[in-house]
């Protein structure tokens, strides 16, 4: 009677892990992209504040005022805009509700708007735009001079509001990505746990396969009829 290799009994094995073990909703954006965007926007925001202060200083330096007056005006413009940007980001109106009364709010609003105008004009002067505000420049090349005036004015406005734009984007991403970051952490935990299950599943499967192989009987009927050297 011939003995055959017996089939390994699959009932000795535990059920295989299913592909549905990782069921958490995946994050919409990779966490590293969120962290990178926050870092770059933060750096760019502070760089924009520094550039705005420097350009305002350059602009005030072209005016017939002492250096300490230029320093004070630059500081007031920079700090007031930072505070104004925070109020706007919190959903408030920096031009209202700060003066304490209706008449005081009116004066406060005019003062704050004046600081914005002063910042834009100092940036405009720092970029060199004031040199085109002459009759000779406009009369000699009206279209070219107008283009240069618009270009310098655009740069001055962008630099004045650049830090607020960058920090507003940074804050929105930081707050809006909180759920995304939590989903990414939960999913990473589940993936690690699932990988650990698979690792142990493989170890147990190999141990059971080795034990089952020790109990198998082997015949050499396949040698019958073969040519031997």
Give a quick precis of the structure.
It is built from six helices and no strands. By secondary structure, the chain is an all-alpha fold. Helix 1 (31-61) runs antiparallel to helix 2, helix 2 packs across helix 3 (102-126) and helix 2 packs across helix 5 (142-176).
Describe this structure in words.
- The protein is mostly helical.
- It has 2 domains: 29-176, no CATH class; 178-207.
- The chain has helices at residues 31-61, 67-89, 102-126, 135-140, 142-176, 178-214.
- The chain is elongated.
- The model is unreliable at 1-14 (pLDDT under 50).
As a percent range, the share of helical residues equals 55-70%
How do the SSEs run, as a string of H and E? HHHHHH
Number of domains: 2
Global structural class: mainly alpha
Report the strand count: 0
Strand content: under 5%
Give the N-to-C terminal Cα separation: 27 Å
Mean of pLDDT: 82
Tertiary shape: elongated
Largest sheet: none
Radius of gyration: 36 Å
Q: Helix count?
A: 6
Task: Give start-end ranges of low-pLDDT stretches.
Answer: 1-14
Topology:
Elements: H1 31-61, H2 67-89, H3 102-126, H4 135-140, H5 142-176, H6 178-214
Descriptors:
disordered N terminus; mainly alpha; 2 domains; 229 residues
